[in-house]
């Protein structure tokens, strides 16, 4: 028999999904490297196979296929960094246990009491912004106390941090599959769509690629299904797009063309009209009721509202129909490609677990972990869509009857509905009931004094031009604050020290573009096509501004990673019609187009602030520049 520690070695390597050195494993288990080497020898000998591979440089790696064949029961995911442990502990306290035994916690996550104490300090720091929340320690137990509204806020904050830039980022999604390149698959799909002049909304594109990845993974692993789908589907444009897409993929990956997967993918593309072609035994209305119930449960339990996300509903309908057929036909889905979701996105995974319970209750089928991971893909992308297009939330205070207040609310929605949402109207003001709706601002027809840190605008019942102007100004100020916060995150990530140049001297704009583009090519951040595209854009119209700076950029070709190259000249160079000293080469990866709005919002604010621009031109090093930008 293997010891508990040896089973923990298997557990840690299974969770990691990457090579780990003996020192890394030894540190987690608080033993020596030599002990780990001995344990791994014993494990391989016990199972009579090379279950754990070794490499002098990389360390150790577990063979997932052999692990599955040995039918070894792997325990729960083990958080391996301090940040992962903090999220894990908060999640446990929010959803599973009212309190945690700290002695048992050390055994579960393989760390010392000292490490746990440090984690608890970090958790207290995280919850500082939620006034009612307190982490209470009593002897060897901890618990999280506070109001439910603050617990919901904490969860949504952590969820936003977890998903941000991942589930709408095809590069991140592509990492889930290791047997094929999802980005190459994406290129094929785009080529086919262009051939048929078939348009796909940008917000749905990541979800469609997820489904493509899942379908290809099923075909590779020979997990075929048959279903009764109306043959009239083959007459649609969507079917032709789907068939040619899978035909090209089959040649690239040397796999079969499975007609059922072609039809399913067609149904996904058809979206709302897809029901006309279905003859599935899964009752359409039943599946829709299941999805509505699932979304209601997520809103009730997690405080996240997906009820208006049509893309999620379409994706879940296709996925759940397929899931039910797999369950009915007892077809298992492999989790070799998606196992990192559980580690990297535990909060999204928690929503998926809750959703699986709803499906189980509704259908009677037990949903296993690989199926839950697929659900997490949908929910992660949906949450990121909410976060990326979130409107400002307004609470309205109007002590008037409905006949008088309704026209005012309708006018607010008509005038500002694209930027704000009236989440609740009250006839009187009371702090706790207002804050329950987490407003970004309050609109009132009364003069109200309160202690809330929420902007408040007093308007007339008939919403005149002055009222509209004040609301516009507030929305613009909120935009400025939002973009300022987003820009600081963006800048820290994109302006790299090795792409910053100060006290430079050049004779022409062409020399500077060559220098900055060549640098990106040398660092494998872009290719020659990007450089050619930057020059093509420049030839159409110089990217310089009268304020003394230029922002050269490409028109069509993206960089491999989003980055900003910065150069500050000692002497100005003639750039188009203007003398320029500050140059920012803009390189945006095709999956990061949302960053453009943030960048140009910052740019427009900077060029109208002459003092700010002067300070940027006076910097002597990277640190000074970053300080000025982030100020």
From TrEMBL:
SUPFAM superfamilies: Phoshotransferase/anion transport protein, PTS-regulatory domain, PRD, Winged helix' DNA-binding domain. PANTHER family: CRYPTIC BETA-GLUCOSIDE BGL OPERON ANTITERMINATOR (PTHR30185), LICABCH OPERON REGULATOR-RELATED (PTHR30185:SF13). Keywords: Activator, Repeat, Transcription, Transcription regulation. This is PRD domain protein. InterPro entries: BglG_antiterminators, HTH_11, Mga_HTH, PRD, PRD_sf, PTrfase/Anion_transptr, PTS_EIIA_type-2_dom, WH-like_DNA-bd_sf. Residues 176-279, 282-389 form the PRD domain. It comes from Peptacetobacter hiranonis (strain DSM 13275 / JCM 10541 / KCTC 15199 / TO-931). GO terms for biological process: regulation of DNA-templated transcription. Residues 493-631 form the PTS EIIA type-2 domain. Gene3D superfamilies: Mannitol-specific EII, Chain A, PRD domain, Winged helix-like DNA-binding domain superfamily/Winged helix DNA-binding domain. CDD domains: PTS_IIA_fru. The keyword Transcription applies. It holds the Pfam family PRD.
